[in-house]
Amino acid sequence: MKNSNSRRDFLKKSAALATLLMAAQKGVLGTIANASTSKSAIENNSLNFFEENVKTSEDGKFLLPILPYSFDALEPHIDKLTMEIHYSKHHQAYVTNLNKALETIDPSILGGIPTFDNIFDKVAKLPPAVRNNAGGHYNHSLFWILMLSNTDKHPTGKLADAINDTYGTFDEFKKQFSDLSMKRFGSGWAWLVVNKGKLVMGSTANQDNPLMNLDSVEIKGTPVLALDLWEHAYYLKNQNRRAEYIASWWNVVNWEVAESLFLSAK
Ligand SMILES: [Fe+2]
């Protein structure tokens, strides 16, 4: 590293992150990231939060990011057990399996240390395990910060204006987004993205996302909203009732984060 201050900062941040992750893995997340502290962290600096916590360790391994609220923070809309298993088991598995899969590839394919950017750009040349697990890691990292309890339940500001300009009304936007989420066959994700300055909605299969440089991914752009449509996101509470889960999710969308993503994408 070029200067010692940068290296010191990096090590300090890594140590702090490791401590928080260990605490999270011990199941004490609720005590270190209660709803009120996480709310202000997310609302005040959501994108920095994403960048600070979704990263690799010094040896280039991807890490499970901090969940920015307690497992029960989204009750009654998203239940505690689902959140705990979704984050601690499913998301952790994507991170673990991504690191394993990256050990099997020639590093020169990526042209540097693995990042979401170079993985998604070169994804067509990479094994399915890298595609699936990198997508799973990125998608879930975004999904967590796009939810919050006690939200206003509707967009405001420039994102609200863009939604109204594109879809007529917020209710019409919700209807179209819910409909396409219902139509995604099997597992996948629903997205609202910015593409060339315009809002576009669509869905992807499995753990694909709109940042992947793949012809088979029909929706391209910078994500503003992400909705997990895998049954593991709702089966424990809603069983097979995806419509019920989608209706619940609208109650916890973090529109401030969505607007931050929208503004930074334009
Ligand atoms: Fe998921």
For this structure, what is the CATH homologous superfamily of the domain at 157-265?
Iron/manganese superoxide dismutase, C-terminal domain
State the shape. Answer: globular
Largest sheet: 3 strands, antiparallel
Structural class: mainly alpha
Helix content: 40-55%
Strand percentage, roughly?
5-15%
Report on the architecture of this protein:
This protein has 266 residues and is mainly alpha-helical. It has a domain at 157-265: minor pseudopilin epsh fold (3-Layer(bab) Sandwich). The protein has helices at residues 4-25, 29-32, 35-53, 80-102, 116-121, 128-145, 157-167, 170-183, 235-238, 242-249, 255-265, and strands at 188-195, 198-205, 222-228. Strand 1 (188-195) and strand 2 form a beta hairpin. Helix 3 (35-53) runs parallel beside helix 11, helix 4 (80-102) packs antiparallel against helix 6 (128-145) and helix 7 packs across helix 11. 38% of the residues are buried. Mean pLDDT is 83; it is low at 1-45. Fe (ii) ion binds next to helix 4.
